[in-house]
Amino acid sequence: MSHGLRRIALALALCLGTGSAFAETNLRIGLGFDPDALDPTTSRTYTARNVFITMCDKLFDIDDKLAIVPQLALGYETSADGKTVTIKLRPGVKFHDGEPLDAAAAKYSLDRHMNMKGSFRKPELSAVDSVEVVDPLTIKLHLKQPFSPLIAQLTDRAGMMVSPKAAEAAGDKFALHPVCAGPYKFVDRVQQDHITLEKFPDYWNKDQIFIDRITYQVIVDSTVRLANLRAGSLDMMEGLLATDIKSVREDKRLTLSKMIWLGWYGLLINVANGPKSDNPLGKDPRVRRAFELSLDRDTINQVVYNGEFVPGNQWVNPQSPWYQAQFPYPKRDLAKAKELLKEAGVKTPITIDYMVNNTPDTRAVAEVVQAMAGEAGFDLKIRVTEVGTALKAAEDGDYQLYENTWSGRIDPDGNTVLYQMCGSPLNTGHYCDKDVDAWHQEARATNDFAKRKAAYAKITQRFLENGWIIYMYHPQVLIAYSNKVEGFRPVQDGMIRVQGVKLK
Which of 11, 60, 411, 431 could serve as a FRET partner for 306 with CA atoms 20 to 30 Å apart? Predict the structure, then answer.
């Protein structure tokens, strides 16, 4: 046999001997931002949630009808007085390190969410007084008072379970190598580039997992993400621009998923967080109302989003049963805006530091807002900032106006409390109104829909008058993916769930 034939024979033998490696499937998902800490206790970004959805199962989840369904839990019971919730855990569940997910581990995870320094889950679980281990697969949550949103909170990061063994060993470095109980386990991460996960063979629901590996590729520019999708370098992408909807629909190789998001897009105003709050916009609600009246939500939607998004001035969209129809968003009124500024006794132009996340659509919105507000007497100085840097600056009070998005929850409490209650971790403007806090507690204390909605009506009226957020619109969840992807079922929270997903 010649030397060349021997090489060919050897290559064939290697291919046959390692056929399983060549058959490995890899789902490549394009992300618009680099996620923050991969620790469900301290994370706060939307893109991190998209990674967690494949790595860290929760006690409960939501389905494509927005119904709460069991995941790591089998179910729950609430006591007659509403102050004790008993949760039964699914048997046979393992963490990625092989440790069992039992009642002691569930208690550890919940205690960690509630007590760990730097936790962003504390407000979500603030009604929980203690967690009791009843038996190896049962826990009881003892509440300070009845708390209607509790199970809804456990459908997201507050319900994610982490391995006690791994968390104790890693300490404050847990985010560098997270260990959870989801379908995929962590492999590696290169900041601003990619995150790799691989299938966990002992996953409790492994019969619904068909892909061997998931690679999250961080590509900030949506146009570049779409180009990679078209070129076959990606299989899915989140954060498609509304202006690209038509081109995706016309591409026979691609599929578009489109639905109204649970979340909101708003303009955050620093009202009491350090020296930068000391300006007319931060100190006077009349100036904030004047600023809002200088804006035309419908025009911004048309110019930047081709009319695809839903304008609104509340933390739930107009399709939600919690929407307060008696408080519609105001139309643009420059005369009224100037009248309010005159009433407030401020001199124009009012110079404002305007911090904006570095994405094409948010920059476009900022430019339109800048032009509109300028006609009323506001001089907005746009400061384009990377997402992680902007979040830290907001915490530190290093902003006057900040363009930001909240990804939304099925219960209105999840869209409000973190931003509206005194001292909440995402309340970076340091807004505080004791009446608003009391009304939130009123809404949390009952399961009666009418009573809860009445409490939210009071919050809506007060917050629209003097709050620190100007809610602008509700985005569409726009996910584009290759026709090679089968079995994907979109959910309004925008998370890319992989159960049942296959690659041709």
Answer: 411
- The residue written with tokens 């049963």 in the block is 321
Inter-CA distances, 423 with 213, 324, 428, 430, 431, Å: 40, 25, 9, 7, 8
Statement: residue 255 has pLDDT above 70: yes
Residue 429 has pLDDT above 50, yes or no: yes
**CB atoms near residue 69 (< 10 Å):** 11
Beta pairing class for 84-89 and 73-78: antiparallel
Mean pLDDT of 101-112: 98
Torsion over CA: 183, 425, 73, 410 (sign): negative
Neighbours of 82 (CB within 10 A): 16
Distance of alpha carbon 192 from alpha carbon 17, whole angstroms: 36
340 sits in the region (left: phi over 0; alpha: psi -120 to 50; else beta) called: alpha
Q: Which ranges of 188-296 does DSSP label H, i.e. alpha helix?
A: 222-231, 245-250, 280-283, 285-293
Residue ranges with strand state E in 13-65: 26-31, 60-62
Output the six-digit token pair for 346.
């401020």
Q: Classify 464 in phi/psi space as left (phi over 0), alpha (psi -120 to 50) or beta.
A: alpha
pLDDT at 364 over 90: yes
Instruction: Quote the pLDDT of residue 388.
Output: 85
Rounded to whole angstroms, the Cα distance separating 298 from 306 reads 10
User: What's the pTM value of the predicted model, to 2 decimals?
Assistant: 0.85
Going along the chain from its start, the domains and CATH numbers come out as 26-32+182-261+477-503 (3.40.190.10), 57-164 (3.90.76.10), 264-474 (3.10.105.10)
Average pLDDT over residues 310-339: 96
Provide the terminal-to-terminal Cα distance of the chain, rounded to the nearest Å: 39
Q: Which residues contact 89 (CB under 8 A, 6 or more apart)?
A: 72, 73, 74, 101, 102, 103, 106, 137, 138, 139
Is a pLDDT exceeding 60 seen at residue 253?
yes
Euclidean distance between CA atoms 492 and 261, whole angstroms: 5
Residue 333: Cβ within 10 Å count? 16
The pLDDT confidence band at residue 22, using thresholds 50, 70 and 90, is: low
